[in-house]
Structures are given as structure tokens and as C-alpha cells.
Amino acid sequence: MAASCRLTLLPLGQTLEVAPGTALAELLFAQGVEFPCGGRGRCRGCRVRVLDGTLPVTPEDERLLPAADRAAGWRLSCRARVAGDLTLELAQWETRILSDDATFDFVPRDGLGVAVDLGTTTLVAQLLDLRTGDVLGVRTALNTQAQHGADVMSRIDYAQADAGQGRLERLIRAQLGALLAELLSVAPGGAAEAGRALTDVVVVGNTVMHHLFCGVSVAPLAHHPFEPVDDGLKVFRAAELGWPVAPEARVNFLPCLGGFVGSDILAGILATGLAAAETPAMLVDLGTNGEIVVGNRDHLLCASTAAGPAFEGARIAMGMRAATGAIAEVSLKDGQLECRVLGQSEPRGICGSGLVDAVACSLDLGRINPAGRIPGAAELPLLGDVKLTQRDVRELQLAKGAIAAGIRLLLGRRGWQPGQLERVSLAGAFGNYISRASARRIGLLAFPPDQVQPAGNAALRGAKLALFGLPEQGGEFAHLRRRTEHLCLNDDPQFQEVYVEEMGFPDGG
Description:
alpha/beta, six-stranded mixed beta sheet, 22 strands, globular
């Protein structure tokens, strides 16, 4: 057997020298290839095509890939190992990761600080001068835990099996430590001086990320009532986490609000000023777990709803993240669908924003009816080989129905109508790229488009604000947590009925 194998990845144009027997998953994750089921061979989300060389067909390939696809060279990369020189066609993932450059008021303090938005899929960290508020450096990355599951539930499954939680903790702690070292290396004066000046790191994330970073068991989140037993503020010294670059710095993972409503949402409340609003307002973070906060300065009510991964392109036949080759926008022109593809490349799939647009436009054309059916057909062509299936439409209905039901129930609990809200702030990447008109057309956000405002990376901005308001500085987030009531939708007797009602699409007539 050869001492090394040459692995060529297209369309990246990258060539790697690897040892025979190396698992493809280890190599491809670093290139941005997703493993939605955590590499268990349960889905088809990590497909690659063999252009040259040999990659044997595995039992999982036989089970999940049609014979025609296998004959065309398609394989599941999560189950394959390199045996010789190989050329593969794979997605050129260029994930759009939201950073934050918004200005805000603060009380200066000495030293440097780092704010981190630790997402299930992506993470972003910023280094700040706490005297001026200036951002000195930014680093973004894919969350390395994603090789063991693309969403929080698959991450929880992996964590509970065969000491998986410990591996996930080590992965993310090491990754954030490496990002911290990179940030300090570009600071004025160099890494050593910056390491001495670094006083605090503030990390925010959803409840699962909180647990998988802080060493709290995720087991309670795997079953009813899905309530964490320890989701409060966690403070470490950097040295405890194995970060030698600034061993005395405090690492603060902010507290969650309850259930699957994490500290990223608490940070979003800080960033949007929701807790200071005199009139009713709302914060919505659209994702696999959609989080919703409704209220004003008198009282806040929050909830999470299991929307599923359709907004992120998962469980969609040709779904993908917002990356090169993804249909990201669909509009109507002369009675036909017009698609915009990211990266000026051939269409390879469709991301969440494109999915919402495509269904909204198809509703207007009568190609999808209010019940979600594609009349007289099993699929809907979009552009090139990309198409929507009946199952794709149903996945979107499930996702949007869960969010719409959660919004409706929280508003009802406060006795408010949608028109009474001063604003609806959309947080997160999907919330910032989605068409507000399309979201209204499908019944996802039943608000006038001018009432809905993209909030950018509110989680990161809130983490930066917290750097200037930690407990020693009289921080307010502990007070916010006390003022925020968590509603468990699973226990609401109306939820299932409202959910079913919200799954349909509005009649455009």
C-alpha cells in the first residue's frame, strides 16, 4: 500500500496528501462539508461524487443511495475511507457567518475583552478594547462539534452515547482556545501583552451549547419536560479550560432563560433593548429551535419551539446551507420563477431563504395550494436540476407552523394582537437574509413587512454589551433573567391545536 494518497477536492481545486485508511469525514469537515446526522449513515447530506479513483460502496450507500446515483459515483463520505488516489466533487461551502459592527453606549473599563457567539453550526469571536469599544480583531469558524451532528438533538444523542459529551466538550473548548490565541496574536503589542491585558471573555449560546461547553449533562434535555437542571452563569479561569495564552482571564458563559431558550436570546434582549421598551415588542430567532420573546419593560415571556432544520436547508431533498451554488432568492418575473444563485455558479441546491421564497412565489402562481399540495405533480422545478418535492413543502409547513403557533400563543398569553407590537426583531443569519414579504406570504410572520426588522447578530452584540456589565460591574443580565418568564409550549394544552391550524398557508385571494 502506498505511503500516502493524493486526495483532490473539486470545485475547491485543493489537493491533500493523506494516509491510507483515513476517514473522509475527518478530512472533509475541515473543508465545510456537513454531516447532518453526525456521520451515522442515516441521511444523504454528506454525499460526494467520485470523479477519479475508487471508493467502495458501503452498506449505507446501498441502503440510502439509488442505484443510478451509486453508478454515477455518488457515495456517503461519512462512511468512507481513503484507499488510494482520489478525486472528489464536493460542495464549496462558503457559509455566511454574521459578525457585528454596530455601535452602542457603554461605560469604559480597562483591559481587553472577547465576545463569542457560540452557535450550533457556526461561531464568531471579536476582540475589543474595553476603553474605547473598538473591535481589534474578528474570527469566525464552523463549530467543530458539527461533525457529530448538525442540530442540537443529534448533538444530544451523540453526547449521551459512549462518553460523547466529553469529546464534544474538549472539541469546542480547544476550538475557542485556538480562536482566542489567533485574536490575541493580531492585537497591538502582540499576543503576550494582549494576554496580560485580557480580563474577560463572554460566551453566549443556546442551552445545549451552554451545557456542552460548561460540562453540564445534556441528559435532561433529551426527554420531557426538557428542562435543564443547571443553566446559570458559569465562570472559569482560562487556565482551567486549557487556554495558556491568557491563563488568568475570566471566561463567563452567560445564563440561559429556561428550557431551550439560551443565553444567546438573553444577549439578544440586551442588544435589541426589548427589556427597556415602553410598548410591546418581540424578538424571534429562526432556526432548528425557534426562540421567541414577547414583552416590554414590565414583563418578558419567552419560549422555544422545535421548528426542525428546514430553515437551514436540512431535510430538504436538495437543501444546503447558504453557500456557493445555493438558490438563495426566488422572485416572480413575467409569471415565472426567477432564481438567484450564490457565488455566480451553477445551482446545486437551495438554502432556507430560497425555500421560503420559492414556496411564497409558487403560492402566488397557484403551483402550490393553501394545503401545501403541488397540484398534479410530485415536484416543482426551480433552476437547472434543482427542484422542490412534496416532502420539502411539508417540511417547511412543519417548521413555519411551529414558529407561527409559538408567536400566536405568546401573544395570546399577554393578551396582545400582532398589530400592537411596536417592532419584531429577527435575530440570526436566517432572520437577516429571509424576505420579510415571503415570510408573511407563507404565514411564518403575520406582520406587515415594515414592522419586522433584521437585528443582525444580536447575540454577539449582546455579548459585547455584557463585557461592560458583568456582575462585578453591576451587570443587568441577572436582573433580566429574573424578569423573564419561560413558557414550555409542550405543556400548553392549546399548542397542538394551534400548531395544526398554522401549518396551512394563507389564501392569497
